[in-house]
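Customer escalation, tier 2.

The customer says the design service returned an amino acid string that "doesn't look like it belongs to this structure." They asked us to rerun it and document both sides in this ticket. The original structure tokens are below, unchanged.
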């Protein structure tokens, strides 16, 4: 999504992030850990600071408040249903930069198959670009083997986990 400098510039102006996930089978009312880690990764990489007020919950989502240089950022984690996403998985991610020029980026699983559909909308007229990328999911066993082959600290993962701990501590 962020191949060009115009798109990367929008990251510094994000005001809202929405992550739609499928609840884990073992805990139907819980937020999927993958959704929390993605939110924590974004917050840690983009230098967001959690606002000390408690996270809010509405009937369909958990809301977390962050700030960066006086700019408020809301992260919404919402449970959903999606036929081609396994329980605990992420179905859709939307990033929105409200300030001018307005930009929004959406990455989602295509309705059928294993494709990832990415859309970018720009400006008030919402001129839209769509790109479809095929990807292969790895099994939990394959992911575990890959992680066990890493013989050092994964600083990015650690930063994301620490940010999630801050988020959950704000509740």
């Amino acid at each position: 999504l962020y191949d060009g400098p115009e798109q990367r510039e929008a990251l510094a102006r994000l005001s809202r992030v929405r992550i739609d996930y499928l609840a884990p089978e073992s805990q139907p009312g819980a937020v999927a850990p993958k959704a929390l880690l993605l939110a924590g990764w974004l917050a840690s990489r983009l230098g967001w600071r959690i606002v000390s007020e408690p996270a809010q919950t509405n009937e369909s989502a958990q809301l977390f408040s962050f700030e960066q240089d006086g700019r408020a950022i809301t992260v919404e984690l919402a449970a959903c249903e999606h036929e081609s996403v396994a329980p605990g998985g992420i179905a859709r991610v939307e990033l929105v930069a409200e300030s001018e020029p307005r930009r929004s980026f959406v990455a989602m699983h295509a309705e059928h198959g294993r494709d990832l559909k990415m859309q970018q909308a720009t400006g008030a007229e919402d001129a839209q670009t769509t790109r479809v990328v095929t990807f292969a999911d790895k099994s939990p066993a394959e992911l575990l083997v890959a992680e066990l082959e890493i013989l050092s600290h994964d600083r990015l993962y650690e930063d994301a986990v620490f940010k999630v701990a801050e988020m959950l501590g704000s509740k």
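Tier 2 assessment: The sequence is consistent with the input. DSSP finds four helices and nine strands in the chain. Residues 155-169 form the longest helix (15 residues). Sent an explanation to the customer and offered a walkthrough call.
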